Amino acid sequence: MAKALFALALWLCVSLPALAAAPQKQPPSWAELTSEQQQILAPLEPSWSKLTPERKRKWLGIAKRYPTMKPEAQAKVQQNMRPWASLTPEERQAARERYRKLEKLPPDKKQALRHEWEEYNRLPEQEKRKLGAPQRKAAASKAPAKTAPESPAVASPPPAAQPTPPATAAAK
């Protein structure tokens, strides 16, 4: 019995480092995705080659679960994927950081922010633009001169109520 345990321990010591050192299989390129995966992940096609292997695996996990989702959840994934795909890597990182900060808030503060966001969403577009204008000006003054100004047609929520695209939770 002791010899068997010793042999097992020896085998584990020898084989585990070799298994751990084995490189992980790279996620597939866009062309290597199945037609179903391509259809589900279509909004990500332009940026697929720029995604890290970790991010690709997360999106492939979403695509795998997608057929089992309710139609409402599928629509939400598709709806949220489009704007997420259009973000720059820096904007995505900022969204992830905002999401992490929001997740750490106590439930009462989360509820208050949710209420503020709902109020903001009920505002007419003209009011949203007015609220977003000071934020865009502040961001433009902090940003390097080479960056393009944000389109005036895009409304920004108040800083405290900026949302994180819901897909970020899945794309973490």
**Which structural class do you get from the secondary structure elements?**
mainly alpha
Q: How large, in whole angstroms, is the Cα Rg?
A: 22 Å
| Helix segment tally | 8
User: How much is the average pLDDT?
Assistant: 76
**How many E strands?**
0
Give a description of the structure.
This protein is mainly α and 172 residues long. The protein has one domain. The chain has eight helices and no strands. The protein starts with a helix and ends with a helix. The model is unreliable at 145-172 (pLDDT under 50).
Sequence-ordered SSE layout with sheet pairings:
Blueprint: H1 2-21, H2 35-40, H3 53-65, H4 71-86, H5 89-104, H6 107-122, H7 125-142, H8 167-171
Give short descriptive properties of this protein.
172 residues; mainly alpha; disordered C terminus
How do you describe this structure in short?
By secondary structure, the chain is an all-alpha fold.
